[in-house]
Specification:
The structure is a homodimer. Chain A has 2 domains: 25-468, Amino acid/polyamine transporter I; 486-625, 3-Layer(aba) Sandwich (Rossmann fold), CATH 3.40.50.620. Chain A has helices spanning 3-13, 29-36, 38-42, 47-55, 65-90, 97-105, 107-139, 147-164, 166-196, 211-216, 222-236, 245-248, 257-285, 296-305, 309-342, 360-376, 381-384, 390-410, 415-473, 497-509, 522-535, 552-564, 592-599; strands at residues 486-491, 512-519, 541-545, 570-579, 606-614. A 5-stranded parallel sheet of chain A has the order 3-2-1-4-5, with helices on both faces. Chain A is elongated, with a radius of gyration of 34 Å. By secondary structure, chain A is mostly helical. In chain A, β1 (486-491), α20 and β2 form a beta-alpha-beta unit. Helices cover 62% and strands 6% of the residues of chain A. In chain A, α4 (47-55) runs antiparallel to α11. At the A-B interface, α19, α20, β4 and β5 of A face α20, α21, β4 and β5 of B.
Chain lengths: 640, 640
């Protein structure tokens, strides 16, 4: 790598870390709560808003359903959290949905979970970054036209931080999470206090929708009403995304990792439940309407905190937390990719840790796809959300169903009630997944329904290739016999230093060396023949005719006929390759070495070697040859 | 090359032609008139119109100046044609401006001529194709919105025809030229007969511009008037472009080539003079005004021929002739590029003839640049014309000035009056070149003024590189001594067939072979060590630590330390390279061979050889090794 490039890389990503520092990059409870729970907690920034957006169709009065729907979702959250607590203890090294489903349900459910997870990690980045930037543009509407650019810059920054390594990103992101938690507690505290006890803004009070009067008022009833309430519920379920992050990442916790992870999961669920219910109650109480230019949370903050410092702090903290939520995916996506690569379902390049112990290729892939997605959806959170959460609920279902099978198999103490808990969770989340697809299908969910099977197809195809490859290269038997007649062919185009270097190399690797010259101009041939004889290099020059002016075909034909004659088992074509000093100089030379290599790529028993000759460098193969230069001898050099 | 690709190539460009068919591809006088004069003759399709476009600014009465201006241009044409007759006999193998200027005036004038010519050939294609398509859209206005697309398709077609070879393009294009000549004679004949003798449409009669009344009528006088008349003259000079084509292409004529070329030049000049004067007279007589939707020639044709078959025939013939004019550049540009490449000013790839004896790279380069130009100028002839003709007049001047020097040097019989003729021509065309730049500078000529020096810079830079290269590789002296200690290093990643192939190759080319294994996981190392000992391949396995998980760095360090130790003069790194069956499979394998090659690219005394292992193919290097397979032996294979 050129020095300048390496320096830039150092500056951005830091010095390479040795492998033995891997154990040091583990997370404490507090840091883990910041790094791994942010995805779940940050969803309060948009979940309530998504419910309100659907309910707004039903008219202002219907907005009062937001608290009820939120309460159902919180109930579901508690169920899923309890379910995942069991997974943490059963899989102390990290029990992602893929691992659990593959181990307990089989390969195909595992692949479905994997595809759903990969999709959701990408959407986590896209949705979180978009929602984070929406928090900023709510405070500064002038920035709104540049939202997409800001989203892409933020994703790029996240990528860079993650390429530097796990622990440093933990430290860098802990503070904003706790600031957000403090500000949200303050917002809810002040908001509830004023709303319930104060008289500053009297609540509208709970309203019941009377089906008869609703009908008169033009509000949809019956099926349409039910559908919209279900749709609002489905959209609100986005609050639960990220709940699985902790059980996926048990391995990243400090020891005792399972206990630490379980405690962190409980804290996370509690915080999320309070914040989500609090936001929904405040939104209903203060009759906040969703708006395309300002988020619901921003409206609440502006109202409760006024235009004070606290309001701006809340917006910044929301942005920071959502960036941190996106960061969760930057931990999870590469880790899952690495596991999949290890199992042969993803390219091997995803399996290895980079210079800084991070799974560099996974991080880069995630960032690139997420940026494309944000760009395609113009950074609009509400447009991205219908795609989101489906994959998460598919994973919840598969993971818990896997756990049920595991309890039935292992029959550990208390397996019956544990299986029951996971079973109830599996059924509940399966129902929600179906509701998600059914109610959001036309507004974007169909994309996920198309993409997940496509990903599964690709994963399976990759696995088939690796299996084929592994069979193909498998070597069973004794050591090979190593005797064969080896002929070396050196295409020459004149007596030049690169040619001399190639000839020296050729005579070093074989006794049977033949220099060949492709004739284009008979006069030039005669001159070369004469000079060659005088040069007396000990290698005979063979001239090949080229009626069609091709330089490559006569060489290929010569090599093929040598092999067919049966006197050689193996032919090496040694080509002198000039390495220019500047990239543009490549355009000025016929890439003979490259063409020769391409011509023989699928021909058996032929190896092409290029002997590099570095233009303008002091030392090179040629200098090894102890050139015995005579100043008065004539140079016979043609174009290379 | 894959079979499908080769078949398509055959279909488009025909079978390869052997070099000895080169002499057969010569042009007869009649074919040469069609192929080489079309550029000049076809300019009647737009030259008169360009004069009218400028004069229109002065008002309707000023249009009567078109005949006077055209007469001056025809005078200039006769002078230049006489001048070039002398060049043809002085340079019977083809005396392009570049050759004449370089030989008689020096390198820099030669390069100026070359740069001007290259620019003009590209503009010939762009202008002719645009004007040709304008002839069609004049007849069929519905096609106008697709003009750019039609232009690009026509250029592509021309490229294809030219890649097939010279003679076939001559035959394919002869008919439309003679049809055009016949139709133009008919148009001018009928038009003049009706205009002078008939009474069907009385001519407006010649009008004199009275400076005083002109002033009153708001017509510019004094400097502005002179400037616009000069500008109209400069634009009309576009009629003379292509005059040099015949003297450039003397070598393409059948013997006696000089006499044939001179006769063809005379015919061409005569035809052009008659057509240009005729068109201008008709335009003035019938008071045709330039229009953005219909060409002047089309208006004349529509008026004189009515809406008859003859009108459509004229439009088609104009289109065909203009395509043929563009074709002139497809003969000249690659020929000049080839000469420049031979002299070291352009990349060598332009020097060689392709399969079909055409200079393929020059043809493709011309087509691509011309298409980009047409696309950038939206196929608008009038926007392209100001860029045109400047280069041509620069070349006229340099070429004739060169001839003056030649006559003074050689003092051949009659050299005085010959030098005088060329001298007068040189001065006249130099004045015109200055007028061109001065009057058209702001309307596009500045682009040419910028681009020609840039091209000269690039040509000179290329020449410097080739000179450096030629010095650098020059070999003067006796044959090199060929004794050195050669060590071969084989990076292995398990006992697989590709690895076995690499080891067989390594032991074939040296006695000193070392297998090296980069350790990432110590457990895997132990398994491999044990299997390696059992395998007993005769090559020792060296394990290299890799604390930073890089596969390449330990290999580089090992090779460097081997060379530094002084026991080896030369190291070859033999890498097994898996060649997949499908392109996408490349993504699934770490490109170790490529990375190793890149890592050693600038390291002296190291050669990297990849031994290909073809997945899914029946025969390969490995099969030469007489594998003694034992069905019950265990396979130890890792990932490649």
């Amino acid at each position: 790598m050129p020095t300048a490039l390496r320096r830039t890389k150092r500056l951005l990503f830091g010095r390479p870390l040795p492998s033995d520092r891997l154990d040091h990059e583990k997370l404490s409870r507090k840091t883990a709560l910041a790094v791994l729970s942010s995805d779940a907690i940050s969803s309060v920034a948009y979940a309530t808003e998504q419910i309100l957006l659907v309910l707004a169709v039903l008219g202002t009065v219907a907005l009062s359903h937001v608290v009820g729907i939120s309460a159902v979702i919180v109930g579901l959250l508690v169920l899923v959290a309890l379910s995942y607590r069991q997974t943490i203890f059963a899989y102390p090294h990290g029990g992602g949905s893929y691992t659990v489903a593959r181990e307990n349900l089989g390969v195909m459910p595992g692949l479905i979970a994997a595809a759903a997870l990969l999709t959701d990690y990408i959407l986590t980045v896209a949705v979180s970054i978009s929602a984070g930037v929406a928090a900023i543009t709510s405070a500064y509407p002038a920035l709104a036209p540049h939202a997409v650019l800001v989203c892409i810059a933020a994703t790029f920054l996240l990528m860079t931080v993650n390429l530097r390594g796990v622990r440093e990103s933990g430290i860098a992101f802990s503070v904003p999470t706790y600031v957000f938690i403090a500000l949200m507690l303050l917002l809810i505290g002040v908001g509830v206090y004023r709303g319930v006890l104060g008289h500053e803004l009297a609540p509208a009070g709970p309203m019941r929708i009377d089906p008869v009067s609703a009908h008169h008022a033009g509000i949809p009833v019956g099926f349409a009403f039910t559908f919209l309430i279900l749709r609002a519920f489905a959209e609100g379920c986005v609050a639960m995304t990220g709940t699985e992050a902790i059980s996926n990442g048990v391995g990243a916790f400090k020891a005792p990792s399972a206990r630490n992870a379980a405690a962190t999961l409980s804290w996370m669920a509690a915080i999320l439940a309070v914040f989500f219910m609090g936001t929904s109650w405040l939104a209903q109480h203060y009759q906040v309407m969703p708006s395309p230019t300002e988020t619901v949370l921003s409206q609440l903050g502006r109202h409760i905190f006024g235009g004070s410092f606290l309001y701006y702090a809340l917006q910044y903290a929301t942005f920071a937390l959502l960036v941190l939520a996106a960061n969760t995916a930057f931990a999870d996506f590469p880790r899952l990719s690495s596991i999949l690569a290890h199992d042969g379902y993803m390219p091997r390049q995803f399996a290895a840790r980079g210079d800084r112990l991070a799974f560099s290729n996974g991080i880069i892939a995630l960032a690139v796809v997420a940026m494309l997605l944000v760009w395609a959806f113009r950074g609009d959170t509400s447009a991205l959300i219908p795609l989101y959460a489906i994959g998460v609920f598919v994973c919840f279902t598969l993971s818990q169903a896997g756990m049920v099978m595991k309890w039935r198999r292992t029959r550990a103490p208390g397996w019956r009630w544990r299986a029951l808990l996971n079973g109830v969770g599996a059924v509940a989340t399966a129902v929600v997944a179906i509701v998600q697809v059914a109610t959001k299908f036309t507004s974007g969910a169909w994309i996920v329904v198309v993409i997940i099977p496509l990903i599964i197809l690709v994963l399976a195809k990759i696995e088939r290739h690796y299996a084929f490859f592994s069979r193909e290269v498998q070597y069973t038997g004794h050591a090979p016999l190593m005797f064969m007649h080896h002929t070396v062919v050196v295409p020459v185009n004149g007596i030049t230093k690169p040619t001399a270097g190639a000839l020296v190399y050729a005579t070093t690797i074989s006794e049977d060396v033949r220099a060949i010259y492709v004739e284009v101009d008979p006069e030039a041939t005669q001159r070369l023949q004469a000079a060659w004889t005088e040069w007396d290099v000990g290698v005979e020059l063979t001239v090949l005719a080229s009626p069609y002016r091709s330089v490559i075909r006569p060489i290929v034909d010569y090599v093929q006929s040598t092999l067919k004659a049966g006197t050689s088992d193996l032919v090496t074509v040694v080509v002198a390759e000039v390495v220019p000093r500047h990239w543009w100089e490549h355009l000025l030379h016929n890439k003979t070495a490259l063409f020769v290599k391409t011509a023989f790529l699928f021909k058996p028993n032929v190896v092409v070697t290029s002997v590099p000759y570095l233009l303008g460098h002091a030392v090179r193969l040629g200098d090894l040859m102890h050139f015995d230069e005579l100043p008065n001898s004539e140079s016979v050099a043609q174009n290379a």
